[in-house]
């Protein structure tokens, strides 16, 4: 990334996205942060995202959009909640106060409003504010990307696709970062099951920017969802040099690579990627995306009969400090997998009780509203499974299967819950549950034909219930 090419005050004005600051340095740093966010990478020559955030606050301490962006990025990373983190809560308040004391544009005001709504857990309303911006300013990439990530946390798959589709015609090739919209759109297409179109659009993205890690990620999903395992393995290996430079997404792409090995029953190869890449990166970054991936992977391997006990203990050191955050149900479930795997029953209990408590008075927090109907019973199902009460786990999970999308994440990530339900049904003493398990496997086979994992589970069901 060439620092000289970042946009100054005049360049942002020329694009119809003026920023309320007289500091060219602040404008360029805003662009530098946005660029790294879109590319999923910390550029060390710029000092990384954190370095640029410190620099932007020094360049213009009262730059509202600088504050909004840095606070917004911390919120969207989901690693901390304003409920527990006073520093983050006060950063939100300071940004709002700054915005109220200045004559800023309606677009900037909407950005601040969206960030404030998001900080209260009101993700849908935050998305509405970003979409309001995009109606008048379809090339506001920060609004588009914040909305995209938030829809992902909501499991709002159609919205994630359509949000990008609506603005695409306004993006001309000369607009900086325009080619990265291909990856965003491809991911929305993929999550709404337009696999062939998603593959085509992501390939177009990679032909423009070979190291677009999000386009790579979208293709990794396509091959996962279509059970084109060998194609996926070949693709991830051939592109590794390109996507591993995107340090924020690299661990997640390695996770996709490892899933193909689990699918094939090549557990040693999967563990090798877990140890050398996923856990190592997760421990270094502390990122929530890396953390949930590592937890999910151990859970999948354990269901496949692989012993991962020591790895659960290491993983617990990473998740334990977050077990009372309750930022998203999706994160909570993965922290719970780890505390159960590590046999830390006290932490598991506290996590569940904390979620039950928040479900009683959720206020505007969309995830806490969902906790009572979906989050708590889903977490309880994992606890029952861990105790060996497989029938109880089925009774809790089965009624939720078409409501689980609301906890966020992707179809591929939520598949760990579907696998858990199948395993619980197969292991249950209840004959009806066993029959249900076989039905779920037939259904799985219809959606993803040629899946070796499904074939193995079918064999197992036959052996168990012969």
* Number of DSSP strand runs: 0
The total number of structural domains is: 2
C-alpha termini separation: 61 Å
Q: Which descriptor suits the 3D outline?
A: globular
Give start-end ranges of low-pLDDT stretches. none
Biggest beta sheet attributes: none
Mean pLDDT, to the nearest integer, reads 96
Find the structural class using helix and strand composition: mainly alpha
Radius of gyration: 22 Å
Q: Number of helix segments?
A: 24
User: What is the H/E string?
Assistant: HHHHHHHHHHHHHHHHHHHHHHHH
Keywords summarizing the entry:
TPR repeat, 2 domains, mainly alpha, single chain, 466 residues, 73% helix, 0% strand
Would you kindly provide a written description of the structure presented here, covering whatever features stand out?
- The model has no long low-confidence stretch (mean pLDDT 96).
- The chain has helices at residues 9-14, 24-39, 48-59, 64-76, 86-100, 106-119, 123-136, 141-154, 157-167, 181-191, 195-208, 213-225, 229-243, 247-264, 267-285, 288-303, 309-319, 329-341, 345-360, 366-387, 390-397, 411-427, 431-447, 452-465.
- The protein has 2 domains: 1-151; 267-466.
- With 466 residues, it is mostly helical.
- It comes from Solea senegalensis.
- Keywords: Repeat, TPR repeat.
């Amino acid at each position: 990334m060439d620092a000289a090419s970042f946009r100054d005050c005049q360049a942002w004005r020329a694009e119809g996205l003026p920023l309320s600051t007289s500091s060219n340095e602040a404008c360029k740093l805003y662009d530098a942060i946005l660029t790294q966010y879109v590319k999923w990478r910390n550029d060390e020559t710029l000092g990384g995202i954190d370095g640029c955030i410190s620099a932007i606050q020094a360049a213009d301490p009262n730059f509202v959009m600088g504050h909004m962006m840095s606070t917004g990025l911390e919120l969207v990373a989901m690693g901390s909640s304003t409920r527990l983190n006073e520093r983050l809560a006060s950063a939100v308040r300071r940004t709002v106060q700054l915005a109220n004391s200045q004559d800023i544009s309606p677009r900037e005001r909407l950005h601040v409003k969206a960030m404030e709504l998001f900080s209260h857990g009101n993700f849908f309303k935050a998305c509405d504010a970003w979409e309001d911006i995009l109606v008048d300013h379809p090339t506001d990439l920060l609004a588009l990307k914040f909305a995209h990530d938030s829809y992902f946390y909501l499991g709002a798959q159609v919205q994630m696709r359509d949000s990008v589709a609506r603005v695409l015609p306004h993006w001309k090739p000369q607009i900086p970062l325009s080619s990265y919209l291909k990856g965003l759109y491809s991911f929305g297409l993929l999550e709404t099951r337009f696999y062939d179109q998603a593959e085509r659009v992501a390939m177009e993205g990679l032909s423009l920017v070979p190291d677009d890690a999000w386009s790579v990620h979208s293709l990794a999903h396509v091959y996962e969802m279509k059970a084109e395992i060998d194609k996926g393995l070949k693709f991830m290996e051939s592109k590794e040099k390109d996507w591993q430079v995107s340090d924020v997404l690299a661990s997640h792409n390695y996770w996709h690579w490892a899933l193909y090995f689990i699918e094939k029953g090549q557990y040693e190869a999967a563990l090798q990627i877990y140890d050398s890449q996923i856990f190592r990166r997760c421990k270094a970054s502390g990122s929530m995306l890396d953390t949930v991936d590592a937890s999910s992977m151990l859970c999948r391997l354990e269901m496949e009969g692989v012993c991962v006990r020591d790895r659960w203990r290491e993983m617990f050191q990473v998740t334990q400090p977050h077990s009372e955050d309750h930022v998203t149900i999706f994160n909570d479930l993965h922290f719970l997998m780890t505390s159960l795997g590590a046999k830390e029953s006290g932490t598991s209990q506290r996590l569940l009780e904390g979620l039950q408590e928040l479900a009683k008075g959720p206020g505007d927090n969309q995830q806490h509203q969902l906790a009572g109907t979906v989050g708590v019973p889903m977490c309880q199902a994992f606890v029952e499974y861990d105790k060996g009460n497989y029938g109880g786990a089925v009774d809790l999970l089965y009624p939720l299967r078409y409501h689980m999308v609301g906890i966020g994440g992707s179809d591929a990530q939520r598949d760990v819950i579907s696998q858990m339900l199948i395993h619980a049904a197969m292991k249950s003493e209840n004959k009806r549950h066993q029959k249900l398990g076989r039905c779920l496997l037939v259904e799985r086979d219809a959606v993803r034909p040629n899946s070796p994992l499904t074939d193995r589970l079918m064999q197992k069901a036959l052996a168990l219930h012969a």
